[in-house]
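Predict both folds.
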Amino acid sequence: MIYIGVTGWGDHDSLYPGGASSRDKLKHYAGHFPIVEVDSAFYAIQPKRNAEKWVQETPESFQFIVKAYQGMTGHMRGEIPFESKQAMFLAFKDSLQPYIEKNKLAMVLFQFPPWFSCKRENVDYLRWCKQEMGEIPCALEFRHQSWFAPTYKQKTLDFMKQENWIHSICDEPQSGEGSIPTVLTALDQQRVLVRFHGRNVHGWQKRNAENWREVRYLYRYNQKELEEWQESILKLSEETEHVYLLFNNNSGGDAADNAKDMMNLLDIEYGGLAPRQLDLF
């Protein structure tokens, strides 16, 4: 089964042509796609009441990919706002319970920063993270090129498979050590994740720019680029039972449109989505 969606449900105006309040957007979103990434969990561990609301207002088959909190992945500068790392992980796991209870948690995504390089202490930390998460399915996404350098690529993949990490495959600009190549390998027989970050090579590393985060994901995939992925996605679907595709090229409002393009290309029409409100004009 191939599932297609985008990261977050707030920044996709093409999905809400008649306008929708922020509190109702997920209901509308769930009429278009069967999965979504909860990127707000990266910025703060969400109150359980939020997850309870989101679970209640989506169809029974809808799935959430929850992004790991920034304190867990080393993005946070300074001290974490918890007594210990263990307390932080416990709080995060507790926030996942509403998804788990309704069987709506596809996975947790651990996306590590560009400075998280391939060295022993980081390998040890990955092992510790997986131990802390227990049986919760977790995907692993790197941003430092060293993990897939020729010397370490196979060792990285073997380690991920041994530790039962789901592989988060990336399509992103190739602009030095702060980007990783696309490694088309499913390590888990149940799940693989593919995230489309766009190919804005000029904006990818411009951290000093005032609107860097907006520029970073400003990209629209053309038909040829999506067609190049078609064969790879079908190949992945032969290697693992569930293939999850997330479009993260949100800055220009292109993610939802590209996700729809991919659905058409793969000839996918989902059942069990939320009812859509008709736009009369």
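Second protein follows, with its predicted structure tokens after the sequence.
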Amino acid sequence: MMIGIYEEQVNQIPYLHIVKSENYNIELPTIIYFHGFTSAKEQNLPIAYMLAQKGFRVLLPESLYHGERSNGLTDKQLQMSFWNIVIQNVQDLEELRSVLLENNWLLEDKLGIAGTSMGGITTSAALAKYNWVRAAAIMMGSPKITDYANALIGNFKKYGELPISDNQVQQLLTEIEAMDLSRHVNTLDQRPVMFWHGDKDPVVPFEHSFLFYQEVKDTYLDQQNIKFIKEPGVGHKVSLNGYQEATKWFEKHLL
């Protein structure tokens, strides 16, 4: 069994396509996995390999201003672009799904979305926006993205000038709120969602995903479709166990 890694692109979005070579042109359940902030698509090859071994097709897109799409932004400019990158990720997701459909690569709409950190935030936003996401794994992301955005904006104000106007901030928050899963809980609609989070995460608050999980779990008729994995003592880094659990999750709900 050969697992192939193919470098591909659609409308300025470079992505890695990981699949058993003999299955390249066969309709398969598919996972799109988004990387974290200041990371790159190649860094998610370990979980892509695990998923491909199980029989999935996996796409690893490059986020705006990262990896092949980086364009020399300073650290501060990149920090300020965080939410624009998330919004662009959510838009890119539609393009990637179109590629799957046009090439007859997707089996019966079995499309799962997952991601790490900023990619987990993207995943929660995608659940709020797209009803065609069939299952998801949010790896140390936040489903309370308006709260998270307000906290980040507050930090910027505390440590210096915010380089955008109050009107621009308000406009951005309006866009974020429209994709905030915690503000649009009904969009979950019983879809399988798994959360993984280390309880010592200093970057994305553990409480965001944990409290959200506690708020919504009783709305699920089948408790097998929602899961929270807390990893004690772990900071802002997904463990091997986290990747294995995400793989098992998709195996259970999409294969």
